[in-house]
Amino acid sequence: MRIAFLNARFNGYDRGVWSGTLFHMMAALQRNCCDVTSLGTAGNALYLAGRVIRRGILLPLGKNIDYSHTVVLSKALAGIFRRRLARTHFDVIFAAAARTELAYLETDLPIVYYIDQTARQFRDYARNLRGLTDWAVEQSEHLERRAFSRAEQIVFPSSWAAKSALQDYRVAEEKINVVPMGANIEGIPEIEEVSSRRSHGPSDNCRLLFVGVDWERKGGAIALDALCKLRERGVNAELTVVGCSPPSHCIHPSMTVIPFLDKSIPEHRERFNQLLHDSDFMLFPTRREAYGIVCCEANAFGLPVLASDAGGVPVWDGENGILLPVEAGGAAYADAVQALIEHPPDYTALALGGRRTFEDRLNWDSWGRSMAQIFRELLAARAGNVSLECCADGDNHAK
Fold this sequence. Notes:
Layout: E1 2-6, H1 21-32, E2 35-38, H2 44-58, H3 71-86, E3 92-96, H4 99-103, E4 111-114, H5 119-122, H6 134-150, E5 153-156, H7 159-168, E6 176-178, H8 191-198, E7 207-211, H9 220-232, E8 238-242, E9 255-258, H10 266-278, E10 281-284, H11 293-300, E11 305-308, E12 321-324, H12 330-342, H13 344-360, H14 364-398
Parallel strand pairs: 1-2, 1-3, 3-4, 4-5, 5-6, 7-8, 7-10, 8-9, 10-11, 11-12
């Protein structure tokens, strides 16, 4: 089976694209699906032009666009990738987070489209997407509808995203699959090590971990409030913030900030893994979330996750973490932490349950095996259809 990996921003080796997710996807496909080739990056000058137009012309006029999802860019990328596909024989195209690349691509190859959220869910998702013009919204919606129609199979990491495809875009149910993503980390500890670390409950210092590049969207203020509430109750808690710099007024003597860690750098990767090992709880009070890879990473280390039910978060309440309502504030997170501190066996059960969930379905090899099965079934169905058409043609000639 020869798979063409389609994404205009990914060259097959870059761990920085989509927080390393595409890199781990390709590696998992190579381990489980034989021959996988990245079609490479494309349209860099077009992306740059879009960024310049947005920042230099439109934003000063009070207009905002999503330059990465336009028909002009889609048609240009389609031409580039059509030529690249013609150079090599492939059996199937895997279009990963590639709405724009896929929408106008003309090919006879079967396409599997993987996306963590629909265009409808993506709207206003991040700060730079707020206040898009009606034109920009329609461009993205148009591309999404075309991408859905072009793909023979569509895969989402969560039921939350799949539900949007069914309800908002009327995608046929038989085209939709749900396959959770894995943890974008290396150096995962053995189960025995995790069991030893979590078997006695949380440490006396109650180390809280918050990871996110966007303080506001990831709910940083709620994590900080949880720290304050715990300390007011006499709990010796401390909070480590990784990936962003909180606003100047969000400070606390028991909060440590690590603004940036690059997991492609060995020293940074080791430090991140050590934080997952040393921490007692991960707070993930996200406001809007397509998935949350960091929850899978926490589960790999048996680190209990306290998360908000705000999208496609891979947390099942009581199994691999605690899921709180999106409107829950710092006090609710403090309550959940305190309850587990006071009942160490419950803490250990939740920690080990998280590791089991990681072993069962929140790792990349599990994802890769599921994707390989989708590819095989798609190609088998295609082959069956061809055989039926040949038989039909033969009958017609006989007549």
